[in-house]
Write a structure and sequence with these properties.
The longest helix is centred in the middle third of the chain and has 17 residues. The chain is an alpha/beta fold and 231 residues long. It is built from nine helices and six strands; from the N terminus they run αααβααβααβαββαβ. The strands form two sheets. Strands 1-6-5-2 form a four-stranded parallel sheet, with helices on both faces. Helix 4 packs across helix 5 and helix 5 runs parallel beside helix 7. The chain folds into two domains: 39 residues, no CATH class; 188 residues, Rossmann fold, CATH 3.40.50. 39% of the residues lie in helices and 15% in strands. This is ComF family protein. It comes from Algoriphagus oliviformis. Belongs to the ComF/GntX family. Pfam families: Pribosyltran.
Length: 231
């Protein structure tokens, strides 16, 4: 009773608003309002996870298994606004919420038993300290909770790389060469891994991480992101 009163008091002083439309959130809405949840640009790549435009994009960069994204990325669209708020407005709860919602969709399609562990793409420690969190890890937390699968940050980023935003496909591949490594003491032999990131454009970062996991003995690595963007 006291906790409910305290929460009501905090909501009165510091009201929770939907990051998309600005409306006040109800108690049952953890991050996005119900209306905005219903209007998200859902991609549905998980309905054809072995054969879609994402698997075509990464073919040749890694042994292709499943590749999926929750949302379609469009400039100045809803997905871009959410990603910008997540990364640059210090709103890690958006990453958790995207993972929760996508996890529910995956669960409905029977994916719950397809993976042994969910692994986020790591940030360099300096960048994570500056941001305060790893957006991919927040997404992984939401997925892990919805799917009841453990989340483990198995990878280290050993080099500080320049931003990928304005680089060509080839430059992106070169930029992440030999950047990632399995954390010392971790054993992943035979594991089925879901590797997650915030967005996939060329796929260079995700594939670099996936190849490290495969080289270290993972059975297969599937890819999932909050959003999928163009080249």
């Amino acid at each position: 009773m006291r906790l409910l009163f305290l929460q009501d008091f905090l909501d009165l002083i510091f009201p929770r608003n939907c990051p998309q439309c600005g409306r006040a959130l109800f108690d049952f809405e953890p991050c996005l309002c119900t209306v905005c949840q219903g209007t998200l640009p859902v991609a549905n790549f998980h309905l054809r996870p072995f054969d879609n435009e994402l698997t075509s994009k990464i073919r040749g960069l890694m042994p292709v298994h499943r590749a999926m994204a929750f949302l379609r990325f469009t400039k100045k669209g809803k997905s871009q606004k959410l990603l910008h708020q997540l990364k640059y407005r210090h709103m890690p709860e958006i990453g958790v919420e995207m993972g929760r919602l996508f996890g529910q969709s995956l669960d409905k399609e029977g994916f719950r038993s397809e993976w042994d562990v969910i692994v986020p793409v790591p940030l360099h420690p300096l960048k994570q300290k500056r941001r305060g969190f790893n957006q991919s890890e927040e997404f992984a937390k939401g997925l892990a909770k919805s799917l009841d699968i453990s989340m483990n940050s198995l990878l280290d980023r050993r080099k500080f790389t320049e931003t990928q935003t304005k680089k060509s496909r080839l430059q992106r591949l070169e930029n992440v060469e030999e950047v990632f490594e399995l954390k010392k003491g971790e054993a992943i032999q035979g594991l089925r891994i879901l590797l997650v990131d915030d967005v996939i454009t060329t796929g260079a970062t995700l594939c670099a991480c996936a190849n490290v996991l495969l080289d270290c003995g993972a059975k297969h690595v599937d890819l999932a992101t909050i959003a999928a963007g163009g080249q």
